[in-house]
UniProtKB/TrEMBL annotation:
<dbReference type="Pfam" id="PF01105">
    <property type="entry name" value="EMP24_GP25L"/>
</dbReference>
<dbReference type="InterPro" id="IPR009038">
    <property type="entry name" value="GOLD_dom"/>
</dbReference>
<feature type="signal peptide">
    <location>
        <begin position="1"/>
        <end position="19"/>
    </location>
</feature>
<keyword id="KW-0472">Membrane</keyword>
<protein>
    <recommendedName>
        <fullName>GOLD domain-containing protein</fullName>
    </recommendedName>
</protein>
<keyword id="KW-0812">Transmembrane</keyword>
<feature type="domain" description="GOLD">
    <location>
        <begin position="77"/>
        <end position="269"/>
    </location>
</feature>
<keyword id="KW-0732">Signal</keyword>
<keyword id="KW-1133">Transmembrane helix</keyword>
<feature type="transmembrane region" description="Helical">
    <location>
        <begin position="242"/>
        <end position="268"/>
    </location>
</feature>
Length: 274
């Protein structure tokens, strides 16, 4: 159930593009999507500890790809290819704002609304979760897409219509939503000016804080990976030295013990004590 956002967009300029507002119907998810993406996150964490060319790393990347494909095929996802919207994604971060609203969330299906929830998940082209929100009714989400050297880089905006009550009585219900996506700071500012919408001071501060937190998280992740690698290499080197030192010390003790026993035997023989 993958939709391509590039088909729903029109170009406003060399680097400005806006997604049309989309009306979508999200069917119930047929898998435990949260668990699936949690496993992907665990695989990524394990992958960071390995050399890229190692056999285990290759296996993990294959598992990540398989999990992400399964996730996308069992949920409603809209794909946006960055170079269709901006020319700068290879050199700098890209700000994306997604506005989603559930249509009449209280009057579709009583059981469906009591025992289902709509989750929002934005993932990059490697399956990393950049932003996630559970039980969405109406939400405006700002996400910073890290710079990506790939020309065909993309991100997926996914919706999980997750069954909370999985009993046979709950048949599940579709969720109708309206979604719009804005890509690029200039585009977002232009849309606010055109619509005459001005953020309230508190909302603006919250938006600024959200952007700063996202930026800090991205910087932290970018810094911690090489630091973790250097720390791991140091620990492994120290561990190797300790092991070698222990072996040398143990061997020395054994040799000294053998020499002492031989000397004792020789002494006893010379004194005709044995």
């Amino acid at each position: 159930m993958r939709l391509y956002g590039v088909l729903t967009a029109f170009v406003l300029g060399a680097s400005l593009c806006q997604a049309f507002q989309l009306g979508l119907t999200v069917p119930p998810s047929s898998v435990d999507s949260a668990k699936l993406m949690q496993e992907v996150t665990e695989y990524h964490n394990e992958l960071y500890k390995l050399k890229k060319t190692s056999k285990k790393a290759v296996e993990l990347r294959a598992m990540i790809k398989s999990h992400v494909e399964k996730y996308i095929s069992n949920n409603l996802c809209v794909r946006y290819i960055l170079n269709e919207f901006t020319e700068d994604h290879m050199n700098q971060n890209t700000l994306v704002v997604v506005h989603v609203k559930v249509v009449d969330p209280t009057n579709v299906n009583e059981l469906g609304n009591r025992y289902q929830q709509l989750n929002f998940n934005l993932i990059d082209d490697e399956g990393n979760t950049l932003r996630r929100k559970n039980d969405v009714k109406e939400s405006r989400v700002a996400v910073t897409i890290p710079e990506n050297p790939r020309e065909d880089a993309y991100f997926d905006v996914c919706y999980e219509n997750q069954m909370i009550d999985k009993s046979w009585k709950n048949k599940g219900a579709n969720k109708d939503i309206i979604m719009s996506v804005e890509i690029g700071i200039s585009e977002i500012v232009d849309n606010l000016e055109k619509s005459g919408t001005a953020l309230k001071p508190v909302q603006k501060q919250a938006s600024d804080i959200e952007q700063e937190v996202t930026k800090l998280v991205n910087q932290f992740v970018a810094q911690i990976i090489p630091d973790e690698t250097a720390s791991r290499n140091f620990n492994e080197d120290l561990f190797s030295k300790v092991i070698i030192g222990g072996i040398v010390a143990s061997a020395s003790l054994v040799i000294v013990g053998v020499v002492q026993v031989l000397w004792l035997i020789l002494y006893l023989k010379q004194n005709k004590m044995i």
